[in-house]
Structures are given as structure tokens and as C-alpha cells.
Amino acid sequence: MDYNPLASLLSPMTLAFLLGVAATLVRSDLKFPDGVPMALTIYLLFAIGLKGGAKLHGIDPADFLVPMLAGIVLCVLICLWTFGILRRFGRFGVADAAALAGHFGSVSAATFAASLAFLDSLGVPFEPFLPALLAVMEVPAIVLAIYLAHRQSEGNRQRPFLPLLGELLTGKSVILLLGGMAIGMASGPQGFTQIAPLFDAPFRGFLTLFLLEAGLVTGRRLADLRSAGWFLTVFSLAMPVLHGGLGVLAGYWSGLGMGGATVLGTLAASASYIAAPAAMRVALPQANPSFYLTAALAITFPFNVAVGIPLYYAFSRSLFGV
Amino acid sequence: MDYNPLASLLSPMTLAFLLGVAATLVRSDLKFPDGVPMALTIYLLFAIGLKGGAKLHGIDPADFLVPMLAGIVLCVLICLWTFGILRRFGRFGVADAAALAGHFGSVSAATFAASLAFLDSLGVPFEPFLPALLAVMEVPAIVLAIYLAHRQSEGNRQRPFLPLLGELLTGKSVILLLGGMAIGMASGPQGFTQIAPLFDAPFRGFLTLFLLEAGLVTGRRLADLRSAGWFLTVFSLAMPVLHGGLGVLAGYWSGLGMGGATVLGTLAASASYIAAPAAMRVALPQANPSFYLTAALAITFPFNVAVGIPLYYAFSRSLFGV
Amino acid sequence: MDYNPLASLLSPMTLAFLLGVAATLVRSDLKFPDGVPMALTIYLLFAIGLKGGAKLHGIDPADFLVPMLAGIVLCVLICLWTFGILRRFGRFGVADAAALAGHFGSVSAATFAASLAFLDSLGVPFEPFLPALLAVMEVPAIVLAIYLAHRQSEGNRQRPFLPLLGELLTGKSVILLLGGMAIGMASGPQGFTQIAPLFDAPFRGFLTLFLLEAGLVTGRRLADLRSAGWFLTVFSLAMPVLHGGLGVLAGYWSGLGMGGATVLGTLAASASYIAAPAAMRVALPQANPSFYLTAALAITFPFNVAVGIPLYYAFSRSLFGV
Amino acid sequence: MKPVPMQLVTIIAAQELEDRLLHEIKTLGARGYTVAQVRGHGLHGFRASEYEGENVRIETIVDGRTAERIQQEIAHRYFNEWAIVLYATQVNVLRPDRFVSEEPVT
Amino acid sequence: MKPVPMQLVTIIAAQELEDRLLHEIKTLGARGYTVAQVRGHGLHGFRASEYEGENVRIETIVDGRTAERIQQEIAHRYFNEWAIVLYATQVNVLRPDRFVSEEPVT
Amino acid sequence: MKPVPMQLVTIIAAQELEDRLLHEIKTLGARGYTVAQVRGHGLHGFRASEYEGENVRIETIVDGRTAERIQQEIAHRYFNEWAIVLYATQVNVLRPDRFVSEEPVT
Ligand SMILES: Nc1ncnc2c1ncn2[C@@H]1O[C@H](COP(=O)(O)O)[C@@H](O)[C@H]1O
Ligand SMILES: Nc1ncnc2c1ncn2[C@@H]1O[C@H](COP(=O)(O)O)[C@@H](O)[C@H]1O
Ligand SMILES: Nc1ncnc2c1ncn2[C@@H]1O[C@H](COP(=O)(O)O)[C@@H](O)[C@H]1O
Ligand code: NA
Ligand code: NA
Ligand code: NA
Hints:
Chain A is an all-alpha fold.
């Protein structure tokens, strides 16, 4: 199998993202109508869930218990050490450090989708239960981060913790991913065939549109890079590489194949920019959104899509000795 | 032909609806952006019309005259007796009883689409002109119900009746269904092939999304069940069974096949929740929307999708001696 | 090759447009939700670009240099003479005449798409670089028209010209068309295959929806026909025929095939109704939008879709001696 | 330019009434209006989804006399049957004549 | 009918707060409200995309006493931590009783 | 906290002007604003579809002096050529200092 790392940079997905960034930089009036980005998000999450679920039919749950545990442990660790690093070396306040830690410990569905599309285009197989990994790795770090912030702040107006946890576990991404998987599993491959012309075939096309829009938003955020400072910039480029490597290793050890390990690496390296910002806005309103949005959306996300995924894949290949 | 009634409950369509209800019950923040539900409605109605029209090519109009008449008569009768029952036994006021009668006498396009998807998945054939049935059965009961309310109310501020009729006959569902059929017929199967990748193949996928959203709205309405009262709840479960049976019989007598009779039963059993609420808001503003929305959307609709359609199909099978 | 001009009138695209007009005339409440028309526009422009770009792979740039130059020259000439005619014979003010000249000198992406769909349905081949033609022919006449208006007006509050040019060259249609082509070219046919299920197969279906909506807007504009006056009405029907003929000739001379010449004719004949109105609102706010919107959207556009395209095609056939 | 007081009349009503209400206020002398999509809750329950119907907020700046006429007319024709909320606010504008009704009060 | 002065209380806040704020104002005596989707910019930065979150504008017409209670309560509970803008305007309505709080002031 | 009167300046204008107008009001001292998508009709005809362009309503709460400056500047620069409606309303806010312009009046 001949592998050309440039091909990933030249995929329609990556290029659409760059087009979006470029359009903002030249001050184009291109703008998706209100509601369309959210509609695309709903489609992507639900489609990921459905497709994964349909393939789960007849798979032994034991197969994915270990990778799942590995994923969750990784998220918790990432959250803890990024919090520490940001506090000590970045000199961030408690709320800002915690919010950022929650973002890096959680995962990005769009990056996940890009990694699947990447593997698909190379014909590399991967485990059907990966969407479940995406779902379970989303929440833990966010919860932990909020807990860290609450513990260290002496504010008396903290929101009670339990309802917050409830809100997170019923957030739209969890509902759509797990709900989609349940539907895909219950209705089986036969059921999925009925809806595949919407949820399977055009998936990469919709992802391309989504990334075009994400590029537009990223472009607007690039102006904030200066206010984010060089520490956060370097942090948002270096940590994904570290986390990606650890993720690939964790995948290898927990029994995933070369494709699955690449995806676990991608998940670990990715920073949430849908679920985490929404949660932080509610739970840590005192944290500055400029920091976490710029880091997750404008730096880590494009880095992973363009450079990270091929990197983690190359590492996985060498690890599996291909 | 082996038939498993559980398969309908486990279709992605039905499950998506249940997911929507469940998401609301656990207070998820999942919500479709404004405009998306309406866009899905427009797509479904237009696609139903186009597909039906394309298949009408070369069919003798005489074939569907009798089923259409049967359908209209059924709608009128349903409207009359539900009005009587609600007035006498339910002790509803004139406006509320009339509004409810209009909903049950009219038909639901989503339920119709679910019944076609159901038959498709079983490989049961049905007549191509059924969408025309859907179109002609929408308006009569609504008009009759408004007339009933106006006749019995001594108010002096009644809106004149004729413009109201005009509004109903040019409502978006009639325009999209009949317009779609006309286009499908005029451009023929060859014309339809050009647009089938949008209006045919992904139809069930879009229906799944639509039902997910309908589930979200239904979930919110479930809280109103109490205010609807037990009479309306029982009514909204029992009448569909009666109407469904009558519809299947009417289909049988008027020359439809087993599939067509199932669909006519479904139409009779279904309660409108797009055209009728819109009409009632304008024509009977004094009627309480909680009653008709809860009955049509939160009770009758899910009942038909999950239980009713397989029931009417089973009845049709036994009637046709399969 | 047997060619039946009626088939174009009976294509789902044309019929959907007529349905939209009819729906408005009977005062239907059919209305696309806010944002959907813009989402469809974005889709169409991006899809046109992607598809064209993917086919450009391995084509000699020299092949399309001459047709492009021919297209631009045509746009400039059209802008100049329509301005003259409207000033002298139509007795329009400077701003109104310039705004109209900019619309007729520019091009309409929807008309372009309709002409491709028309050729496709007849199996007539055309050059892959035509979308680039669409892109380069959009801006020149708009810029020229604004320049004409500014030169002839003694107002002291003119907006500086350069930023205006920048705004036009980074307008969403240019970005999506050229950006789409670049992506299509860079990722090649193999990249396009990945996204074709969204951007290729359902293209005509989305175009049908777009035209349905354009019909709704056109219907509302028809009431303004009276205020537009008979001169503008005749002008908006006659000029396209002239421009269409010249465009076909220019295509023939510049080395395009029969299909390409038909499309260049269509482009010349078409009047912009997305980019030009947006530009004129900003650059010539004193011009009356009723004139240009009614002319471009309610007269020239439907004329081209229903009558013009088959006409230019027939002319091209005879020119090429088929 | 000096700010001059005018009346801003706001109407919140079911979207289905939009065309009729706009026609009324134009007939009563309004020379412009602005419409926004809103959702709401009131004595007639929720109006916040496609099925329940949504509301529109119609705003028109008019002179005092026209404001009164609009309020009285809408109240007279719609208050009994419809879910409508109507109020007037004093605002200051710079070009009063562009808002003043051209028609004589009849 | 004669116009009677009432208070229109407007709250601009993050969409995530919508449900809680509506609950508060209902509890405090508001008998209806109207909600619109808006975007904005303020001391807490931009709120104009899916990722940044959007704002809602909540408007409720209430009697003067309820207006005061709403303003004090929201200020007390939300001003410290949240991006909220809150103001009251005097408006004239025709049917005052439909806006007056039913609950006694406690 | 005690309510303090401030000025709410509202601008209704073509969406194409949004960026420029926001820049103007920020330069003139506004410390925040809220924007809503609206459609409308006025002396310059309809603005209610993608082709006609839509309007935005920009609202900013400022102190009286800034309000006056904004009104005069916008009037001076835009009224001649553009379809713009501009008005000011008195509102009561609880935290006046968050709205008061930081810049000296020049
Ligand atoms: N007190 C209020 N304040 C603001 N808006 C209201 C109020 N009451 C009702 N509304 C709005 O007016 C619509 C109709 O009111 P109602 O007739 O009370 O149902 C509601 O859906 C709300 O959008
Ligand atoms: N001066 C102002 N005028 C109007 N709206 C404002 C103003 N300041 C803030 N807002 C709105 O209130 C939201 C929260 O404000 P802030 O807490 O200042 O970020 C902003 O996103 C704006 O929508
Ligand atoms: N009298 C008015 N009341 C409220 N809004 C208005 C009024 N006149 C104009 N507008 C709004 O301001 C925009 C531009 O106004 P105009 O310059 O009159 O066309 C319109 O599209 C409306 O949205
Ligand atoms: Na991560
Ligand atoms: Na029925
Ligand atoms: Na042209």
C-alpha cells in the first residue's frame, strides 16, 4: 500500500477548510445562514452514530471495553496535566486553565470524522465501534475540569454539581451519537440500508461543507491569536502531538488495529469545540471564551486535520510494523 | 412472505421518533434550528408528489376515481362523528370539538410517508396515485369543521367563508403535493430520473430526521397530556383504530390492492398536524391549541407510526386473504 | 439526435419554477424558511465549481483562454450598449440605467446551471471549464456599470472605487466558484468521487428546489411589472435574444463546441440576480431596486429558462451544422 | 438636526396575521414598518414551533395621531378573537417628516 | 380604550440561560413574554456564532412593581457571573389588566 | 440597585451596512450592541428576501451625550444616500457605568 501524506492535505475536506479561512482573510461576504452550521452538526453526529451502530451488529462487547477504558483514562489524564501546565507555566487563572483543560481532554467530532474519511480514502479498515469511543470520551474531561475549577474557587455562588452533570450527559452530541448507535444497532444493517443514501453516501460531502464553514469561523478567530499569546499558541500545537502519540500507543496496547489506533490518537489529540464551549459558557462563565475558542478551533483543529492525522497514522503504521 | 410486526417498531424511522421523545424527557438541549423542520416538511411533501406523479404516467384516471371518492366520503364522515362524540360525550365546546374533528378528519403526510416506507421495507407493492389521495383527503374535513363551528356560534365577527376556502386550497401542502404530482406527470419517469438522487433515494433518511424532530416536539407536548384529560387521550387512541379499520375496508371495496388499502386505512386513522393546526389558528382562534396539538401530535401520530400501521396492514392482509 | 424543444419546458426544473410563480399568484402560503434560499445558492455555486474543477485535470489552459477573453469582452460591450439604450431610449436616470446595465452585463448562475442540466438531459457534451467562464464573466460589467454611474454623477460622497472592487472580487459567488474549482482541480477526479454523492448526483434535485423558490419570489415581483413599464419589459425580453445570439457566435469563433457555445450564449443572455443586486445595493443605493430586480428576476430569468436556452441551442446546432 | 418625539407602535401577533396587519397599518397611515420573527408565551399558550405557529413583532414609527388610530383600530378588530399584544413607546427621531402620515385624518 | 403606562422589561442574555430566566420572570409575576434570537457584543466579547453561543432578547410587559422585582432579582442572581444586560422602558398599553401580576407581592 | 436613565439608540439599516455601522458606533463610544435580523418596508421599498437584501436592527445602550453624537454622525454620513431609520428611546438600567463611554468627548 502506497501512502502519500500530501494526499490528505489535498483532500476536498482539508481544502474546503482552507478556502473558508482564506475567504475570511480576504474579507469575503461568504457566510452560512444562521442555523445551517447547527443543522450540519446534527447531521454529522447522527450519521456517525447510525453508521457505527449498524456495524456493531454481532460484535462482542468485550472487544471494545478495553479501548473504551483506555480512552476515558487518557481523557482524565490529559485534563489533569494540561490544567497543571497551564496553571504553572502558562500562568492562567483557575477558570481559564480549567476551561482549556476541559477542551483538550474532551474530543472533536469533526476531527474524528476527518480521520475516518482519511482512513477510508486510503482503504485502511477500522473498528465499527469507534463512534462509541467518541461518545464516551466527550464528557469525562469536561466534568473533571469544572470540578477542578469549583474546588479551587472560593465563590459562594457555584452552581450545584449534579444537575450540571445531567446537562452534560444529555447534551446533543451524546444523545445523537449514542442514540444514533442504538438505532443503528436495533435496526441492523438492513435498516441502515434504507437510510444510507442520506447518512452514508453523501457524508463526506456534508463534512466538506461543514469544514468550509468551520474555516470561516476559524478565519475570524485568527485575529485573536495575538491576544491568545505565544504560550497558548505553542501549547495548542505541541500538546496534540504528544496526546496523539499517547493515543496511538493506548490503541495499540488495548487491542485496536492500525486504523483504530490512528483514530484513538486523533481523538486524544483533538480539542472539543462544540460540546466543551457550550458547557463552559454555562458552568464557568467567568472563563474567557477567547482563549478556549481560539486554541481549540483556530489552532488545534486545523493542525490536526492538515498535519496531525497523517502524523498519527504514520506513527501507527510504524508501530504496527506495516 | 414472512412478516414480523416488530420490524416496524425497529425501523430507523420509528426509533428516531422515540429518540426525539426520549431526548426531551431527559431534558436534552437537542433542538433543530429554526427553519429546518419547515424545510424538511417542504421536501417531504414535494418528494411525495413528484414520485407519485412520475409513476402516474399512463395510468387510467378511472382507476383512482373510486378510491378518491371513498377517501373524501370517509373524511367527511369522520369529521361529523368525531364532532358529535366530542360534543356529547367529551363535553367539549363548539370551537374545540370542531377543531379536533377537523384534525381527525384530515390526514397526516408524515404518517402517510411512514406507511409507504413500511410497505417498501416489506416489499409490498402499492398504487402510484396514493399521493393524490393524500392531497384530496386533506382539505374537506377542515372546511367542514370550520363550517360546523361557524354555524353553531352566534358570533357576529365570523370571517367570510369563501376566502377561507381559498386559503385552504392553496395551502402549502396542497400546492406541493398536487404541484409535485403535476410536475412528476408532465416530465415523466425520464424527468424524474434526473431528480431522483435527491427526491427518491434519500427520502427515508430525510423522513428519519423529520421524525426525530417530531419526537422532540411530541416530548414537550407530553407534559400537556394531563391537561388534555383522560377522555381525549382514550379518544385519540381508540378512534384511529376504528378509522383505520374503516379505511382498509373502504380501500378493499373501492378496488385498491392490499398495499393501497393499508395506506387508505392509515390516512383515515391519521390526524393532521401541519395543515389543520395552521387552518384552525386562523379560522377558529378561540379553540384551544393544546387540545388539538396534543391529541394529533403527541398521541395519535406516535400511536399510528408504532402500532397503527402494522395493525392496519395485518387487517388488510387478512382481508385480502394473504 | 432527435431534439424536441418542448422537453425543456417540461423538465422538472422549469416546471418547478412555474409552480412557484403559480403558487404566488393563487396567494399560497408556501414560503421557504429564511436561510434556505441562501443555503441552496451556496450549494449550487460550490457544486458547480467543484465539478468543473475536477474535470479540468489535465486540460491545457490555452484551450480556455480565448473563450474567456471572448466572454469578458462580450460582458463589457453588453454593459456599454445597454447603458446607452436605457439612457437614450428608455429615458432612465444615470443610476438606474447603470444598475440595469450591470445586471445584464453580468451573468446568472442559476440560468447557467439550467443550461448545463438542459444539455445533460440531451446528452450533449460541453467543455469542463465552463464554470470558470461563469466566474470571470460575473464581475467586469458590475464594476464598469458602477464606474459609469460614478463618472456621470457630480455627487461628492462617492465611495472610493478600490475597496469596492475588492468587495466584488471577494464576493461569495467568486469565492465559491473559483475556490470550488481550485479544490476540484487540486483533489482531482479521485477526490471528487468522495464528495460526488452530495455535489454531483443530487445537483439537479437541489436546482429544482432552488427554482421553485425563485418562482415564488418572481411571482411576487410580477405585480411590479406595471411599475417597470412596457419599455423595460420589452427590453428584458429582446436583449437576451440578441445577447444569446452573439454569445453563441462568440463561442463558435473562440473554439468552443456546440454545447459550450450554447452555454456562452446563455451566459451572455442572462442577467445576474444575486451578485449584481447585492453590489448595486451597496454601490448605487440611489438606484431603484424595483427596476433591476423585476427585469432580471421576473422577466429575463424565466424567459431564458423556458424559451431562451432551447433557442440558443437551436441556433448553435444550426451554426455547427448538426 | 434636532430629535423630535414620535410614537413607536409595536404589535406582537400570530404570523398568520402578518399580511392583514401590515395592510391595516398602511391603510391607517404608517409609511414604513419593520418585522421580526419571534416566539412567545401568553394567555393563549405557547407559540414557539412550526406546529404551534410562531409570532411576528411588527414595529412602526408614526405620529401621535396615527398611533392612536392604529391602536384603536387593531384593538377594535382583533382583540376579541386573537392573541395580540399592542403597545406604544415614545421615541426621538431626527427626520420627523418621513414618518408623518400623508393622509388626512378621516 | 385608553392607553395606560406599563413597564417593558428587556433582558439580553446567553441563550443557555433562556429557560432559567423565563422561569424566573414567570415566578416573579410576568404573565407572558416574547423571545427573539439576537447576536451581540459587549464586555464579555462576541456572541455571534454556534461556537461562541448566541444571545436571546426576552421582553415582558409587566406592572411597575413586578418590573422592579424582576430587575432586582435578576441583578442579584445573575449580574456577578453572567453576561446580562437588563433595562426597563415605559410603554402604553390598551388592556392593562392582561399584564398585571396575579400574585400578591410577597 | 437603583435604575438610572440611559439612551437606547436603535438603527435599522441594510444588512450590507452592518459592519460599517458597528464600527462607527464603537468609535463613537458604544461599549456593546445587540443585532437582530429583520425585514422591512419603507420609502425605499421592500427589503424582505435574499435578492432584495434584508435589514438589521442594531441597538446600543449609551449615555445621553454618546447617543447624541451617534445620531448626528450617522445622520450626517448616511442619511442622504442610504435607507436608514434611527431613533432613541429612554430606558432605565441598573448598572449605568457599564454603558457610559470611556472616551472623552472630542
Ligand atoms: N406580558 C407580555 N409581555 C411580552 N409579550 C407578551 C406578553 N403577553 C403576551 N405576549 C406576546 O404576545 C403573544 C400573544 O399573547 P397572548 O394573547 O397573551 O397569548 C404571546 O405569544 C407573546 O409573544
Ligand atoms: N451597551 C449595550 N447596548 C446594547 N446591548 C448590549 C450592550 N452591552 C452588551 N449588550 C448585549 O448584552 C450581551 C452581554 O453583554 P456583556 O455582558 O457586556 O458581554 C452582549 O452580547 C450584547 O448582546
Ligand atoms: N415608519 C417606520 N417604522 C418602522 N420602521 C421603518 C419605518 N420606515 C422605515 N423603516 C425601516 O427602515 C428600513 C429603511 O427605510 P426606508 O429608508 O424608509 O426604506 C425599512 O426597510 C424598514 O425596515
Ligand atoms: Na482530546
Ligand atoms: Na384522518
Ligand atoms: Na449577461
